[in-house]
Amino acid sequence: MIRANKVRSRAEKESLALTLVGFCCDHAVIGSDLAGIIVSWNKGAQDIYGYTAEEMIGQSITTAIPEHLHDDGLQFLRDVAAGQPPARHETVRRRKNGSLVHVLLIVSSVKNSKGEIIGASTITHDITERKRGEECERLAAVVESSDDAIIGQNLDGAIFAWNPGAERLYGYSASEAVGRPIQMLLPPERASEESEILERIGRGERIRHFETVRVQKDGKRIDVSVTISPIRDRSGAIVGASKIARDITERKRAEEVRERLAAVVESSDDAIIGKNLDGTIIAWNPGAESLFGYTASEAVGKPIQMLLPPERANEESAILERIRRGERTNHFETVRLQKDGKRIDVSESISPIRDRSGVIVGASKIARDISERKCAEEELRKAEERFGKTFHSSPLAIVISTEAEGRYVDVNEAFLKMVGRGRGDVIGRTASDLMFWAQPSQRLELLRRLQEGGTVTDTQFQYKTSAAETRDAKLSWVKIEVEGQPCLLAFIRDITERLHLEAQFRQAQKMEAVGRLAGGVAHDFNNMLSVIIGYSDLSTDLIAPESPVKTYLEQIKKASERATMLTRQLLAFSRQQVVFPRVLNLNEVVNNVTTMLLRMVGESISVLFRPTTPIGGIKADPGQIEQILMNLVVNARDAMPDGGEIIIETGHVELDQLYVSQHEGFHTGQHVVLSVCDTGCGMDESIKSKIFEPFFTTKGIGQGTGLGLSTVYGIVTQSQGAIGVESQPNKGTTFKIYFPRITAEAERPVPSREVDEGPAGSETILVVDDDDAVRKVTASLLVSAGYRIIEANNADKALEIMTASGPELDLLLTDLIMFGKSGFELFEQAKVVRPDLRALFMSGYTGDLAALRRGLISERTFLAKPFTRVSLLKKVYTVLNIE
After folding, report:
1. What is the pLDDT of residue 845?
2. Residues 6+ apart with CB under 8 A from 250
3. Which residues are CB-contacts of 394 (< 8 A; sequence separation ≥ 6)?
4. Whole-number Å distance between alpha carbons of 793 and 795
5. Stretch (H or E) spanning 816
6. What local confidence, expressed as pLDDT, does residue 708 receive?
7. Which of 186, 182, 163, 188 lies closest to 240, judged by CA?
8. Contact in structure between 498 and 514 (CB atoms under 8 Å)
9. Beta strand pairing call for 862-864 and 408-411
10. Residue 779 confidence (pLDDT)
11. For residues 432 and 441, is the Cβ–Cβ distance under 8 A?
12. How far apart are CA 42 and CA 57, in angstroms?
């Protein structure tokens, strides 16, 4: 309460009241002291407020002031006490019945005779009607300017008010609408809707935000939201309805879109998550529940960081920072945690969420489980890595080229090595550019076959290397697609060496077959030649020297000896010649025959020997090595009819696995090499492929037997060696023979002494041979020299003779190869009966027997068929006189 200038006496109060009564008695005048206690209340005040003077004098002025305006009312008194000039205030006061009244207050000070302010005078004007008019004006302005349609209608539905908003919404002007029934706005199916609404309005109900459909002037249907209220007159009677309609077509469409979007969100298998800019989750669809394992109630309101693994803790803050800048993040791949702690790979697309004003208020995240895809990608990556490693490291040539033009897309190292080119020379170029196909038409034919549904698998073709060398290969084609372009995946296998080896193998098989045939023929020939030569020798002694028959016999013997040479060559070729190998120094063997070789070639051909020292040893029959040299030199001589040069060289070399794999019949390791090179006419590939076949010759009829080189081939292979030939037409020929090198000391060669007549004897000899003719002539030759002979046609008969009590035997002369027991088996069993018995073995063909008895039959105890009388008697004498 205001205490300043306190009234001290009753007289002052009465004076104050009288003074105030005197002011504006036609208006409501209220007098109060500075404490706010009413001291006067006139008839005008009673009319406005409803209180009598008796009820108000002595009361506080706040009695007629609404509670929330108490401070304002008392402030007026403070201003008066402070000497402020009279002030006008529009405010609200409360009547006795509790209603409010709009008033204009003029508050001024009241002074005593001394000029002191002792109170306040408040003149009150009722301005309710004025305020109501102003309010109506404002409401009318609001109605006129409203975008919403505001319509007034009677209870019978007739329109009596139509604002511009209604004109815009429905298309009718006010003049077109006022006075017409509201039903003109209703579609047919809603004709009864307004009567129901007016019935409710008539009962005093209000209808808020009623959504319905109305028809515009042009017949277009629109969605509207309508709020309908009763209109009452001053007595409170309902006389009509006030209708506010708003076009919600776009909103409905938006709602439909949102509903559809919501349905999409709800039914999406992807996780769709909404979050605030602080990372708090505000939306969580079923897809998110399925993906992360949290229900919506468990997730909404929680920080999005709960889905992040520890090592990615800062990832979301970085994402939200980008969202604040209005950026979008599309298909961001990362790792998130499920409720059970399992880590999953996800792909996220994150967009800003904006409010109606466009301000970014959050982020929308769509997350998809890509664990299977990542796993598949990893498997694909590993598969591609494996394919890449396989592709590039495969020993098989692999090529990817375009189907149409054969342009190389990718090739592996094996292909580059195969064609002899670099990657930069191949990629991007076509097979035609590189002249890869030896026959380009073959590619077109294979491509046509593939396009017609056929297959290209292990198809043989020829290609050319960068050096223009034509080689053989096999091709398999598979149709593939590379970046949408039809391509061919080719697997190419070079078979040039294989074809060469197969040819060599076939040649070896043929040589083996011919060798077996030759060996068998030689065996029978040697037996027959033994008979012919033996009887020739026996007959010569019976003919007088001057008799022409003696000359005939000599020619028969010479022809037999030539035939003997042929059979020996056949046996050498077939590797069935009986040999007695020893450790040799190849240089010494060549030196021993050099003089003989010079006599063989004549004066027009020079023979040069270029030895390598030290050379190392080989194990071979020295006679066979001499035979090799003579045959090769004769072959070279015949290739140089106009003269030339023969170079004989020795050397050593180590053959590795690669070389051996490419050359049939060769073996790895250290080898001694014998090379015979001539400057003759040379050979083409066709001739080279046949030169080791027996009876093949390029010489005229009667000029050669075709056994020279086949003999060399047989001797070399029998000595565990290998032979190769290099030759081109008009560029000479070089034969290279490879013998396994050994470290043992070479044996010195022992020269043989020729004997004109075989020595005679008187010992007893058991002759065993299953060929009667050979046995008879052998016996006759021995008898002619003074020996006593016992004959047996097989081993069993011979054993019977030796076990029987008969004459002492000094020598067993037996054929090695016989029906039943062999000669060696006979000798082993005979030693049981006669331990001191000596043996001499005969054979013109030993087959595999000599190999089985290697080292048990010496050169001194072996006699090769066919033999002359001299060689027979010499061997018999030697064996009988061995110390």
Report:
1. 66
2. none
3. 412, 414
4. 7
5. none
6. 64
7. 182
8. no
9. unpaired
10. 92
11. no
12. 10
The token pair that represents 315 in the structure block: 């990832």
Going by C-alpha positions, the residue among 689, 248, 631, 754 that lies closest to residue 507 is: 689
Cα→Cα distances 654→523, 670, 673, 736, Å:
38, 4, 10, 14
Cα distance between the two ends of the chain: 170
- Bridge-based pairing of strands 100-111 and 87-94 is antiparallel
Residue found under tokens 């058991």: 766
Hey, what amino acid is at 554?
A: E
Q: Residue 313 contacts by C-beta under 8 Å, 6 or more apart in sequence? A: 305
Integer CA distances (angstroms), 314 to 304, 305, 308, 319, in order: 11, 9, 9, 9
Cβ proximity of 152 and 73 under 8 Å? no
Q: How far apart are CA 421 and CA 507, in angstroms?
A: 34
For 72, the token pair is: 């304002």
Write the CA distances from 329 to 176, 274, 321, 642, 701, integer angstroms: 55, 14, 11, 92, 95
The number of CA neighbours under 13 Å toward the Cβ of 311 is 3
Give whole-number Cα distances, 720 to 129, 441, 716, in Å: 142, 47, 7
166-197: per-residue pLDDT in tens? 999 999 999 999 999 999 999 999 988 988 89
With a cut of 50, list the residues of the chain below it in pLDDT.
Answer: 1-11, 13-25, 700-703, 751-755, 848, 851-852
pLDDT given for residue 250 in this prediction? 86
Q: Per the structure block, which two tokens stand in for 738?
A: 């490879």
Asked if 135 contacts 24 with a C-beta cutoff of 8 angstroms, the reply is no
Sole residue written with tokens 């402070």: 82
Place of tokens 């407020």: 49
Residue with tokens 């792909």: 347
Question: Cα(538)–Cα(55) distance, rounded to whole angstroms?
Answer: 192
- 225: which 2 tokens? 């939201």
Q: Residue 37: its pLDDT value, please?
A: 93
Q: What is the token pair recorded at 787?
A: 């020996």
What does residue 392 show for φ and ψ, rounded to 5 degrees?
-80, -25
Measured over the CA atoms of residue 295, residue 300, residue 304 and residue 305, the dihedral's sign is: negative
Beta bridge partners of 410: 400
Residue 231: both structure tokens together: 């209109």
Amino acid 225: pLDDT: 92
Closest CA to 306 of 286, 281, 285, 331: 281
Alpha-carbon Rg of the chain, whole angstroms? 67
